[in-house]
Automatic annotation (TrEMBL):
Name recorded for this polypeptide: KTI12-like protein
GO MF annotation, one: ATP binding
Organism name: Chlorella sorokiniana (Freshwater green alga)
InterPro entries, per the entry: KTI12/PSTK (IPR013641), P-loop_NTPase (IPR027417)
Keyword Nucleotide-binding: yes
């Protein structure tokens, strides 16, 4: 329609005598990705010369003020010129207190000392499927918390593992057990007690859990749910479909269950629970198990009272079990308890050479060892130069010290050289000793003073071989 004497079409085009006038297209600015490398460089230099931030587009004063405001609100870096990563915590992961030290070597020594602090214990619950393990583990966690300990339960549900899917075949079972082992090892800290609530039906798997506790140098105990198989079947059938084992998987797991034996060190100390007799019969045993791995004293209860209580629970079998428990207490036997025992206490496990974690060493340890060995080498070379082409005889090392504290103040033993040993041979022996001392895992040295003493012994052996 005509507007102001002009015919305007849809889209803003005007009709004139010469025809339809098209709008002139505006020239688009060059996109940054279309710019050549040379143009980009010139553009950045121009921005820098004008005092404008290449990234933000504002002046550096404006960028600085904005970043400081965001840092105060906790939405940005700690400082505008600092790292974007979060600030390191004062108490590092795996430690119980802040590590302070003037030098890196002091801090490493303090961390190594703190790593030797006792780790909270590991309690393993085993039994047939649907034997009441989860209820006992939850009750045991409550008892540990009552003793002032933080407790965590590691089970299939906490790792989002479905029971029927996790045990349907050998491959799935291997994956599920590996996930449980890893979770237990991660959870062992100095601040909480770990309760492993799973099938744990194979003694080899229980041995792996015991090895984890030994590597962490902590206490360990076993809780066995001694529920009859028929009762377990009834409890499994009464569960909801998503929480119950299928009949085939239940029979497979029950058929492969290996009862724990207190004579095995990975099954000791052993506490036996019978949940089918009622929760009242379990409470004192749970308290004894929690006290056995804790620093708290175990609940005081005499052998006669234990025998009377167990005998009153019914039957000649209970009386025989009570008599056996009382006899074990009287003989001072440890490792098995059928019900609560006042004398049963878990021992602190000690890591062996196969599971021992090497202590942290200083970052410049190899340099210190090399310098200490060179002192010994120089003293031997001086004695050899004085003797000419003959044997130097007895070489002493007074004042030859690495300067380390502790064992470094002990004098080095003398070296009897009954044959000449020139500098090329000495250097070859030094290289061989350095390879043994720094590259072999089980022979790795901790300080330079020990390296000096061992190097003198090493030279004695080489003298004997060369003769």
């Amino acid at each position: 329609m005509p507007v102001g004497g002009k015919l305007v079409l849809k889209g803003g085009l005007q009709v004139k005598a010469t025809g339809v006038e098209k709008k002139k297209k505006k020239k688009k600015a060059k996109k940054e990705d279309e710019m050549t490398e040379e143009d980009k460089k010139l553009h950045e230099e121009a921005l820098k010369a004008a005092g404008i931030s290449v990234m933000g587009g504002g002046s550096y004063e404006q960028e600085f003020a904005a970043e400081m405001a965001r840092a105060k609100e906790g939405k940005a870096k700690s400082t505008p010129w600092g790292s974007g990563y979060a600030k390191a915590p004062e108490i590092l992961h795996g430690y119980s207190k802040k590590v302070k030290g003037k030098t890196a070597e002091e801090r490493l020594d303090m961390r190594a000392a703190m790593k030797t602090d006792p780790v909270m214990p590991l309690i393993v619950v085993c039994g047939l499927p649907s034997s009441g393990k989860s209820g006992a583990a939850a009750a045991l966690a409550d008892v540990c918390r009552a003793l002032g300990q933080d407790a965590v339960v590691v089970d299939e549900d906490s790792l989002h593992l479905r029971r029927n899917d996790s045990y349907k075949d050998a491959t799935s079972e291997k994956v599920a057990r590996g996930a449980l082992l890893s979770a237990v090892e991660r959870s062992l800290t100095r601040r909480r007690t770990v309760i492993c609530d799973s099938q744990n039906n194979i003694k080899g798997y229980r041995y792996q859990l015991w090895c984890i506790a030994r590597q962490a140098a902590t206490r360990y105990c076993m809780v066995h749910m001694d529920t009859p198989a028929d009762t377990c079947r009834q409890w499994n059938a009464a569960r909801p479909a998503e929480a119950a084992f299928s009949e085939a998987i239940f029979e497979d797991l029950a058929g492969r269950f290996e009862r724990p034996d207190s004579r095995n060190r990975w099954d000791a100390p052993l506490f036996t629970l019978r949940p089918h007799l009622g929760p009242a019969s379990m409470q004192e045993t749970l308290e004894a198990a929690a006290a056995a791995v804790a620093d708290a004293p175990p609940p005081q209860r005499g052998a006669a009272a234990a025998a009377a209580a167990a005998g009153s629970s019914g039957g000649d079998a209970a009386g025989n079990d009570a008599a056996a428990a009382a006899a074990a207490v009287a003989d001072g036997e440890e490792g098995f308890v059928d019900g609560p025992s006042p004398l049963l206490q878990a021992r602190q496990l000690k890591p062996k050479s196969a599971t021992d974690r090497p202590m942290l060493a200083a970052t410049n340890l190899q340099y210190e060892i090399d310098k200490a060995l060179q002192q010994v080498l120089d003293r031997v070379a001086e004695a050899q130069a004085a003797a000419g082409s003959g044997a130097p005889g007895r070489v002493t090392f007074e004042g030859c010290s690495s300067g380390s504290s502790g064992s470094g103040s002990e004098p080095l033993p003398a070296l009897d050289m009954y044959r000449p040993m020139f500098l090329p041979e000495l250097r070859r022996h030094k290289r061989g000793f350095m390879k043994l001392a720094t590259q072999q895992t089980f022979m790795r040295l901790r300080d330079a003073a020990a390296a000096q003493r061992l190097f003198v012994d090493y030279l004695k052996d080489q003298l004997a071989v060369g003769s």
